[in-house]
What does this fold into?
Amino acid sequence: MMNAQEKKLYIKTWGCQMNVYDSNRMADVLAPLGYKPVEAPEDADMVILNTCHIREKATDKVFSELGRLRKHQEDKKAKGGKMLMAVAGCVAQAEGDFIMERAPYVDMVFGPQTYHELPQMVMKATGQRVVNTEMPTEAKFDQLPEENKNQGVTAFLAIQEGCDKFCTYCVVPYTRGAEFSRNYEGIRDEAKKLIEAGAREITLLGQNVNGWHGKDLKGRTIGLGDLIAGLADDVDGLERIRYTTSHPNDMKQDLIDAHKDIPKLMPFLHLPVQAGSNKILKAMNRSHTVESYVDIVNEVKKARPDIAMSSDFIVGFPGETEEDFEETLKVVKEVTYAFAYSFIFSQRPGTPAANMGMQIHKAVKSERIQRLQALLNEQQLDFNKAQIGKTMPVLFDRKGSKNGQLHGRTPYNQAIHAEGNERLRGQVVELEVTEARANSLEGKVAII
Ligand code: SAH
Ligand code: SF4
Ligand code: F3S
It folds into this structure.
């Protein structure tokens, strides 16, 4: 039950895992002011839309959501209350002034680098409207309070933020700013907190997570592989480690070695290639070639032969010919993916690719994405089916949809359901895989 001082906080989140993490941290930072997260916007004292700017119609979606929320805001006002309305995240960063202009009922607009200043902003906003799209160089992480929202058995931990790569299609370098790495101690301490709160698996997050670098406890410069090794040793109770998202050029030897040497590091690698044609990769400013990408994948496969590969793809980049697109299909066939995201190229305002000549017709883009997705879906199903009959350690993270059933993840990040006692939640259990579908597996407990 809520007491009189408690205020209701409704946060709606779009976009990547970093945004999910940030929403949790915003709830943490507002807790001392009496705000408690709620599941529905009606009657909330504060609403935060944590937005994503990565593809089409991002801003439109925010405005239509704001339109709906405005009615709740008016209802609340009619009852003599106040609903603070805030827009955060990457649309706020990119379109802050426009939002303030077009939606006068929005009280606050603030970008991803300012969340530690939220309490001051909220106090100010009770009097006036606030825009904060600064990108302070000091780490917001150091100023955020300790984690207190229980994320459950699997948790996210942001270790790096921002991107210096400037792929020509992408808004992230503009919305998240320059690459920044948190220090080792801060990461280790947050990992310990997450474990105390019940986490068994931690996914290390960053827009360019494998660009992470820092110093170990002895002052030596280290990369992500050494960071993972350090966490595996220093954080008791941490059973599984994952990381996302990586850039091929930052796939350094220490990280490849970590896949060989650290059993807690799961055999799954999300390594976006985007396209299979060197001409397109160059126009994208990806700074890797298809050959250098395949070489890296082969190195990783050598280190961890059972590694499951995952990627992002963009089809219909300006200038992409049928031959270029077929090279994308070729790299998919060469690498073989257990999982992938694929997107139609979207012209993002302010990015170089938005104004390139030779934009591809919509009908061509949708025909290509269908062909690509058919191939990727086939590979995903094949990968899932290949697990039938195998026994593997599964981390049960939550209840399944059916009674008496649990949901878990295989080492390869596949969702798996099995009959199991509630007490197995939070445990790693050996399961035999009995059935496979496109998006999930079924299994039975092999040994308890
Ligand atoms: N390195 C980042 C990538 C963020 S964007 C991370 O941490 O996840 C996620 C994916 O969106 C990219 O890999 C790319 O495939 C896709 N994407 C980015 N900009 C795009 C655009 N303008 N059109 C279509 N897809 C895009
Ligand atoms: Fe965007 Fe490229 Fe940076 Fe990924 S590496 S966030 S796609 S600019
Ligand atoms: Fe979207 Fe920003 Fe993440 S644009 S994908 S929320 S970094």
Observations:
- The radius of gyration is 23 Å.
